[in-house]
Structures are given as C-alpha cells and as structure tokens.
Amino acid sequence: MSSPAFPLHRPAPRTPSSTARTRSVDRRAAGPPTGRYRFDATTGSWWWSPEMRRLLGLDSAVEPCTETLLDAQHPDDVARVRDALGAACADGRTFALETRVLHPTRGQRAVVLLGEPVHGEGGAVRGVEGVCADVTGARPADPVAGHAEALQTEIAQLRTAMASRAVIEQAKGILMLLTHCGEQTAFDLLAHMSSHTHRKVRDVAAALTGSAAGHARLPGDLAAILRDACPPARPMH
C-alpha cells in the first residue's frame, strides 16, 4: 500500500515577494551544512534552521512549507520525500533517505534526509523532526565502491546526533519542573553541571533522565549541584 500523500501547507502570503521561490547565495557558508527542521502536523507549520535554508539555497524571506521543500528536490525524488513525510505523520514511521537537492548556485547536491515522528499525548503523532545533511563531499572517488557503507555511516551519525538532542530536551524538561525555571535557564544549568563535573552535556542529561525514570541513582556530584539549584520546599499548612 502506498503511503498517504503529504499535504502541501502554503504559508499565508505577507508580500508578493515572500510567496515566490527566491534563492540567494550565502557566502558565509564555508562548507556543506547540516540543517534541522520541525513540522507541526496539527498546524501545518514548519521551522527550519538557518543551516537548512543554506542547504536548500533559500532566501530568508521564503516561508518554510512542504511545497518549497519538495520544489528543492530533484523531480525523481519528490514522491519519495513526500511519501516518507506522509508515512511519518500517519503511521509514526522513521525514515532515512538519500535525495538530490537542486541548489541554485552549487548545482545538484547529494543529501541525507532523516526524520523521526514526534508523539503527543496518547501516542498520537503530532509532527516530524529531523536533520538534513549535505553528503556530496563524502562520496567516494569510485561512485560504486563504498557508497552504501558511507551512507550508512552518515545515517548512524545523524541518528546519534538526534538521540543526543532528544535526551537533552528531556533533561531540560525535568530541570524546568524541579527548579521552576525557563528553558534557557534549564540548559544553562545543564551546561553548569557539565563543566563542574567534567562530563559531556549529553551524559549529564542521560544521568538525569535515567534517574527520573528510576533506572539508576543520580551520581553524587550531580545530585549536590541539583540540590543547590532546587528551590526550598514550601511549608505545609
């Protein structure tokens, strides 16, 4: 059975130029970027990082939408991208695709598009988030030899990066609940715990989420910092 068609969500036009598919050269991009994106299936809205825009060769005035993403793909890859996004939203399927982006100034680029469904309450899929990486420079001199291995390595690296971000986001949520702070303060606290215990941020985050889930005790040095950061309990009346 074919995957359901992914809806085209056009942004509301702000000016005539914002609806056109305009592109520009970003001379600040020193190398192939790795972009991040999020799609909210409930509102049909997209968010793209600046690196994602550079990878696609899009001007900052262009509003992110499904049509623009598909328009940047090689015509032979459009259906694959649409079907993968549609299946992620409808059935919660993860995907990893190698596609071709037609960059306006750099020509055809080989990219890996990785997507993970985002689940809301009750397990329903409320969107998709992921990364898109330009792997053109990683292509072997022999277009056949080593191609599959290089692609699998790239995908594994992208999945690791996404897993790290996921556990950091979970740890931030835990700290926000414990300390009644905002998102940026929670991340600053994670960074503080990392620098004072000589652990990587993702390792601190993993320790916090593991402790919150009851899988392991929080190491003593992290627990001490957390005790200092938590507000005193209110007296019971």
Automatic annotation (TrEMBL):
<dbReference type="GO" id="GO:0003723">
    <property type="term" value="F:RNA binding"/>
</dbReference>
<dbReference type="InterPro" id="IPR036388">
    <property type="entry name" value="WH-like_DNA-bd_sf"/>
</dbReference>
<dbReference type="InterPro" id="IPR035965">
    <property type="entry name" value="PAS-like_dom_sf"/>
</dbReference>
<dbReference type="InterPro" id="IPR013655">
    <property type="entry name" value="PAS_fold_3"/>
</dbReference>
<dbReference type="Pfam" id="PF03861">
    <property type="entry name" value="ANTAR"/>
</dbReference>
<dbReference type="InterPro" id="IPR005561">
    <property type="entry name" value="ANTAR"/>
</dbReference>
<feature type="domain" description="ANTAR">
    <location>
        <begin position="148"/>
        <end position="209"/>
    </location>
</feature>
<dbReference type="Pfam" id="PF08447">
    <property type="entry name" value="PAS_3"/>
</dbReference>
<protein>
    <submittedName>
        <fullName>PAS domain-containing protein</fullName>
    </submittedName>
</protein>
<dbReference type="InterPro" id="IPR011006">
    <property type="entry name" value="CheY-like_superfamily"/>
</dbReference>
<feature type="region of interest" description="Disordered">
    <location>
        <begin position="1"/>
        <end position="37"/>
    </location>
</feature>
